Amino acid sequence: MSATAGTLIREWRQRRHLSQLDLANRADVSTRHLSWIETGRSRPTSSMVLRLCTQLDVPLREQNQVLLAAGHAPAHPEHGLADPPMAEANRALEAILAAHHPYPALVVDRRWDLVAANEAAYGLLAGVGAELLEPPVNVIRLSIHPRGLAPRIANLDEWRAHLAERLHREHTSTGDSFLAELHDEVVAGGIEPVTSPALVVPFQLRTEAGVLSFISTTTVFGTPREVTLSELAIEAFYPADEATRRALG
């Protein structure tokens, strides 16, 4: 049986650790009306669904699900990256990836499947098992698999702990059960807490040029109104030390 709009709103409210009074005040509705929506006694309008979802920071894909459950049409369009409406976004992604050379950069979707990468990023994949490069390529699994990058990551324990923490945050934010599965794969066998004097967790990879050390930044589209764009992230890697800068420069 499909969940009702009220049930979904209640689940998101609880995920955000808000009381009905908290959400009602934020959305400028009465607690009674909110209670009736959550229990199914009142069918919310599309504008009410969007108002509540905005206050709950519900991702666009899930906002559409709540709207459908309430009997309304989705408010946020979704396209494939190859579709004509996405042409400008694709050009922006290509320009960012190209401009980041000679340093690695890649684009992933919400589930960490690889969307695009520059030549520098592909150049780090030497020796990776061919089966791990069959689409869809999941960047998390590529990082932790014994036939992936794991044997070459010099600070594997530290990097796995970082990935586990990030996946936990992203699952909490989106509610995507696939991210919970990825998290469980990362922590399988245990995660040892690692303390480091570094300001950020580096990604340290053994290569023919020696150990390359990177820090990463994440870039997303500002104020996206389209589902696919809202779920894309650009992971750009910068040298974390002078040796890496010289090796890639």
Automatic annotation (TrEMBL):
Gene3D superfamilies the record matches: 3.30.450.180, lambda repressor-like DNA-binding domains (1.10.260.40)
Which CDD domains does its entry note?
HTH_XRE
Q: Tell me, what's a Pfam family for it?
A: MLTR_LBD
Q: Which SMART domains match?
A: HTH_XRE (SM00530)
Query: What sequence ranges are listed for the domain HTH cro/C1-type?
Result: 9-63
User: InterPro entries from the entry?
Assistant: Cro/C1-type_HTH (IPR001387), Lambda_DNA-bd_dom_sf (IPR010982), MLTR_LBD (IPR041413)
Record's superkingdom?
Bacteria
Q: Which PROSITE patterns match?
A: HTH_CROC1
Q: Which PANTHER family match?
A: BLL4672 PROTEIN-RELATED, BLL5781 PROTEIN
Q: What is this protein called?
A: Transcriptional regulator with XRE-family HTH domain
From which organism does this entry originate?
Aeromicrobium tamlense
